[in-house]
Structures are given as structure tokens and as C-alpha cells.
Amino acid sequence: MVTVNTFDSSSADAGVKAMLTWRNAAGDRLEQVRLNLSGARVRAYGRIVAAATDGCEAYSASYELVTSDAGITRRLSVRLIRAGGESSLDISRDMDGRWMVQTPTSTVRSDFDGAETIDLALSPFFKGLPIRRFGIADGGRRDDLSVVTLQLPDCAIDSVSMSYEDLGDGQVRVTGPDGVTDLTVDEAGIVRDYPGIARLI
Fold first, then answer.
1. What is the pTM of this model?
2. Contact assessment for residue 192 and residue 184, using Cβ atoms and an 8 Å cutoff
3. At residue 8, does pLDDT exceed 70?
């Protein structure tokens, strides 16, 4: 395995394994992911460690993401550790576009408005998935894309509409319910700077 902070898209198309780490400016949140890319297919094992803040309790979350050859989410498994204990969440999407959300105590099924992608809130890795899949950083644009969002640590899940626009010079504008964010990305669509949230280190 090669440890890198970025890689070019030609290498990604051939298959890339990498360890990526993001940290916020305050130093109270860290995300690291072991990434395996093959064309549009993504397999990722990651962890988020967040210290307590005024609005959020401390937690640690590990995740595994698997997509199809077309970059469509197939499965996301999350294991969450908080002071009060541990919990788990498994989200899967079948070939007919039906999502299933499973916890130890419940199962919910939905089409989530036709969404094909998951966005783990405040995660620079997940924020870049549609950018890579649709080639947004290469002059692409997608408006009103349905995305499944997962909030941590409360595990609230919903579908929202997001738009992605290439601004040039490695900048991609993401517009959603929480406002507008201009991300800095590399040639492979990996987020290098998520303003106010985290930077790739």
C-alpha cells in the first residue's frame, strides 16, 4: 500500500490504494480513510474522532463504504462509540433503488427520492464522492441531485437536494439545505479543503 495525500485521476482510473487524513483547524476533529479506488468503484474504511464541543458530545465512528462499478452506493456500515455506549447502523441500496436502514432495534425501507449517493455530514471524504463520480472538477455540473444524508452522532437520516458546480482552478461549489460551500479538490475529485470543517494533511 502506498500512503499519499493526493493522486492523479489517471492513476485512480487504473486502481489506487491510499491513506487519507483530514483535520479541522481547532484540532478537535479528525477523519482518516483507507481508500481503494478502481475506476468509479469505491471501497473505503474510515474513522472519525470528534472531541466534545458546545453543540455536540464526543464520539468516535468507524465506517465501511462499498459502491458499485458505477459509483452508486451499495452499502454503508457505521459503528458509533459515545460515553453512553455503542451503536451500529447499516444502510444498503439494492439494484432497484430501494434503500434499507437497519439498527439493532429497527428496519426502515425507503427510495429516498431516488438517491444513489450517501453524504456523511461534515465528512470531507463523503462530500467528494459525487464530485468524483460525475467528473464535476473537470467542468461538470449536477443540479438538484438527491443525496441521502447521515448526521452523527444522532444518526438522523434523510434525503436532500444538492447541486455541484465546477468553478475552475480546483474549486467546486456545493449548494444544499445548509447553504453554499466552495470546496478545493484535486484532479481525482478528492477534497483537499472543506472550509471551516477540515483540510487534507
1. 0.88
2. yes
3. no
Total domain count, the chain: 1
Does a structural domain hold residue 1?
no
Structural domain including 139 reads 9-200
Residue 187: pLDDT band (50, 70, 90) is confident
Residue 126 to residue 174: CA distance in whole angstroms: 13
How does DSSP assign the chain, residue by residue?
Answer: ----S---HHHHHH-EEEEEEEE-TTSSEEEEEEEEEETTEEEEEEEEEE--BTTB--EEEEEEEEE-TTS-EEEEEEEEEETTEEEEEEEEE-TTS-EEEE-SS-EEEE-GGG---EEETT-HHHHTHHHHHTTGGGT-EEEEEEEEEE-TTT--EEEEEEEEEEEETTEEEEEETTEEEEEEE-TT--EEEETTTEEE-
Grid cell at residue 165: 458546480
Compute φ and ψ for 121, nearest 5 degrees.
-55, 135
Domain-embedded: residue 82: yes
* Residue 2 within any structural domain of the chain: no
Q: Quick check: 181 and 124 in contact, CB under 8 A?
A: no
The burial of 10, by beta-carbon neighbours within 10 Å (0-12 exposed, 13-18 middle, 19 or more buried), is given as exposed
| 3 inside domain | no
